[in-house]
Automatic annotation (TrEMBL):
SMART domains: CPDc (SM00577). This is Scp1-like small phosphatase 4-related. Residues 47-66 are annotated as: Disordered. NCBIfam families: HIF-SF_euk. It comes from Anaeramoeba flamelloides. It holds the Pfam family NIF.
Amino acid sequence: MSLINKRQFLPDLDFEFFSQDNDSKKRRTIDLNILTHLFRLDDQIETTESENKSQPINKQKTETESDIESETPWFTILDEDEEDSYQPPKLLPFPSLDKEGKITLCLDLDQTLISSSFTENKNYDFSVELSDQGKNWKVFVTKRPYLDEFLQECSQMFEVVVFTASLSYYANSILDYLDPENELISHRLFRESCSNFKDGYLKDLSILGREMDRVAIVDDTPFAYSRNERNAIPAKRFFVQDNNPKFVNWRNDRELLKILQILKKIQHANNVPNVLGKVKKKMHLTKN
């Protein structure tokens, strides 16, 4: 995990002090467990100094000094070659042989592919039973029109990844229904793969482990792809609710068909952001 990512665990520390030496301009990598050891070590030194004030000088070798001699260093200094070769952990494994060379397509789940509710409605396609921490409940799911055809075609053109901010036990139950044989979706990423901010969950495509020129994302939430807007295909939000006049025409939704036409234009692109930019200008694609 990079030093930048550790800010969320120790937000009050001055990381600029740790991350850069004004003379050498070399970065330091500091593990959280090492920082904790440093603070503990500081306390031990203060305590030991107080206890040893009354002892003869030649007997004042402290336990802390022994710890320092036996413990491994609390920091690691990377030389220039190591700095250049360091890579943060990636979210995805190497692509399978049948997906090698294909563009990676990330698809959001809720309000992009499906609409779900804890309240039963007359329009749901299937339901899933969930259990967590001793609680049980049922979720009613409505598939966006043309979803099955959309997933079938996408699976032939791309390496498909469902990248959702939902919890895994919820999303897996739905995806197991949509893709019971694991033939359409290559990978599943859940909330723990997102970055949590006050404005919502952000999906950072740069840590997928794929070339950014060969990645696209379809999502109804602009903040989710705000770090990689040039790779994004905005989807209009899909929501189904009984007796709500705002959603009575949901059966006429053609959003997935429109998105599919865009995807066909980028499936062989060497630079997805460039091609998407041209396509979105022509189609006047909006974010919501």
